[in-house]
Amino acid sequence: MTTEGGVLLSMTGVTKIYGSGDAAVTALDRIDFDAHAGEVVVIMGPSGAGKTTFLTIAGALLSPTAGTVQISGTNITALKESELPPIRRKNVGFIFQSFNLLESLTALENVGLVMNDATSRSAGNRARELLTMLGLSHRLKSLPKQLSGGEKQRVAIARALANNPDLILADEPTANLDSKRGHEVMLLLRQIAFDMHKAVVIVSHDHRIREVASRIVWLEDGTFRSDVVTDRDPVCSRVVEVEGAPHAASGGRSYYFCSDQCMKLFEAGPERYVNISAE
Ligand code: ADP
Ligand code: MG
């Protein structure tokens, strides 16, 4: 179910404290966050910032110490533990850094296994369709050990899409991939958000992933930094951090670029990239 305004994930005042007493660690400190249909939100932050904690709470795999989490309009923090598995299965697709495929099952079986109607023929057909969509029609019967890292991650993406969830959560999805395979995976995640109208939330410390972001937020010591201003490079569409970026003025406003090369292209013909008459 898609809620009004397309908010598929909404977190309010989410805090997570691991342990207690002197050993207590505040991994998340009163986080507010929304993700909408059709966008790729990238959450960047150094190791230990709370990224994995954030994502596991967002996906109903871990309960927060305080705060509320809504997935596709359902307040999951008000539910009992026993009520969560169907929500996870139907509404959330997870993609992990280490792929987490079952080694004794084929690509097709790994995808089919998680489907609501796993044993039916239609589940098998949908698993096949998903893998074919992800360019793996020749790998259906392969075991994970026979697949490259990029192929394994595409099987994991197919598995995340198995029950057609609204929300896709990816934890460092490119960390174990070389740059070409990492790039392919990023483009697939963008396609899933844009073409299938899902909310894709990626946590990563890989700066290359910015290329596919609709929005970037910075997590540090369990809180979102509010002081980082970003804008979209009008030439290549990348999200760039405004501070320190090459910039140029046109039609009464400033534009920011990922590189001098994009800035030069822009300066040679701004009207090719922005609608100047509308300013
Ligand atoms: P990231 O994914 O950004 O590296 P994590 O969410 O894994 O960050 O961790 C955030 C903080 O919480 C770290 O200080 C980490 O040591 C701590 N932490 C994570 N998981 C646990 C746990 N199960 N028990 C205790 N502390 C934890
Ligand atoms: Mg992590």
Tell me about this structure.
The chain is of the alpha/beta class and 279 residues long. The protein has two domains: 4-228, Rossmann fold; 239-278. Helices cover 27% and strands 27% of the residues. It has helices at 51-58, 84-91, 107-113, 121-133, 149-160, 179-196, 260-268; strands at residues 7-18, 25-36, 40-44, 66-71, 74-75, 92-95, 167-171, 199-204, 215-220, 223-225, 230-232, 239-241, 247-250, 253-256. Strands 6-7-8-3-9-10 form a six-stranded mixed beta sheet. It has a four-stranded antiparallel beta sheet with strand order 2-1-4-5, covered by helices on one side. It has a two-stranded antiparallel sheet with strand order 11-12. Helix 3 (107-113) crosses helix 4 (121-133) and helix 5 runs parallel beside helix 6. Residues 1-5 have low confidence and may be disordered. The structure holds adenosine-5'-diphosphate and magnesium ion (MG).
Which secondary structure elements does this structure contain, and how are they paired or packed?
Layout: E1 7-18, E2 25-36, E3 40-44, H1 51-58, E4 66-71, E5 74-75, H2 84-91, E6 92-95, H3 107-113, H4 121-133, H5 149-160, E7 167-171, H6 179-196, E8 199-204, E9 215-220, E10 223-225, E11 230-232, E12 239-241, E13 247-250, E14 253-256, H7 260-268
Helix pairs in contact: 3-4, 3-5, 5-6
Bound molecules: adenosine-5'-diphosphate and magnesium ion.
What number is the mean pLDDT?
Answer: 91
Write down the Rg: 20 Å
What's the helix-strand series?
EEEHEEHEHHHEHEEEEEEEH
The structural domain count equals 2
> Given the helix and strand composition, which structural class is it?
alpha/beta
The CATH topology of the largest domain, please?
Answer: Rossmann fold
**What share of the residues lie within helices?**
25-40%
- The CATH class of the largest domain is Alpha Beta
Q: Find the count of extended strands (DSSP E, 2+ residues).
A: 14
Q: Provide the spatial order of strands within the biggest beta sheet.
A: 6-7-8-3-9-10
Q: Into which percentage range does the β-strand content fall?
A: 25-35%
Overall morphology: globular
The parts where pLDDT drops under 50 for at least 5 residues are: 1-5
Oligomer: single chain
Q: Which homologous superfamily in CATH is the superfamily of the largest domain?
A: P-loop containing nucleotide triphosphate hydrolases
Bound ligand species: adenosine-5'-diphosphate, magnesium ion
Name given to the CATH architecture of the largest domain: 3-Layer(aba) Sandwich
Distance between the termini: 38 Å
